[in-house]
Amino acid sequence: MSTSDCRLDIKCTKPAITARKKKPMRQISASLKASVVLFLLALLMCAGCSSNSSKTVDAGMDSGPDTDTDTDTDSDTDTDTDTDSDTDTDTGSFADAYFLLDYMQIGDSTEGCDLDGDSQVDNQLGGLATWLYNQGYIDEDPNVAMSDGLASGDILVAMGLFDVESFTDDADVTLSVFEAALDAPDAGGDDGGVDDAGVPPELFSGHGTVWVVEPPHTNIDGTSIVDSFLLTPTADFSVTIPLGDSPTTMTLQDGRMLGEITQAPDTQMLNGKIESGLICGSVDRVLLQDILSIELELDPVQQAALNTTLLAIADIDCGPFGVCQEVSVGLIFTAISVQRQNP
Question: What is the pTM (predicted TM-score) of this model?
């Protein structure tokens, strides 16, 4: 994707997500599992992200007759007199659609956004996570923990898109992030999670069902869809990243979330796909240094090595002498349609 393909003047590089060799499923520790769950749920914790953008009505989505000359295979009830074979992604009304995250990783240096305007991808977090693991500062690769947890159903995170008129172009959509479960939690202590039977085969089929735990962990108004490209407003997000046995929480500055709706949900709001998803921003270098020092219980030698590494990889908000104050972050994800069980 060229930078001109990223709407609203936000420069980014859309990652080519390639298939990775599957590793044997393993049990992950309860503390690391909790860390990963909080990480995924807090990705979009944004206070006051709102927009005054008005809803723009698409041609062909209204309740009156169309005057165009194309044939729409749409899901609404308007009168179309088109003659081409394109697929209309209009919903005919304001629809709500749910997606389940089925893939999440800390991206490498080629997967991220251009945060400083130099037309280059900015993402140093992946290199930092690899360095921490290789140095023995953390016991498990965070990406392995996330992959195992998502595939096994131990980690279920749902994303809702609300008040959608068109999955191709819509100027004002609300995006929410929820914790999810296979079944309704009950008073007896069952949290609705995965039991010995494992994950239902249809869970990641595009027409699976989950229990969506209310209230949502975040709501972001003013999210837009442009040419099937989903984009949130730029804002500061609170993120929790599993760089140790406990959650590591920090502020993701100038954060943004984007992804391509490669397959729009059908009339039942199922069988949709979001691919090439990105969550980008930067974290304060000194704050990250202090958090990791406490979380990882580093000795003086390890602390000095961490400080040197963070100073070397920091790449955002740089001063005249080349000292940068922030470390860039890039996370990649995909999501698949899911049906909400609860009313």
Answer: 0.72
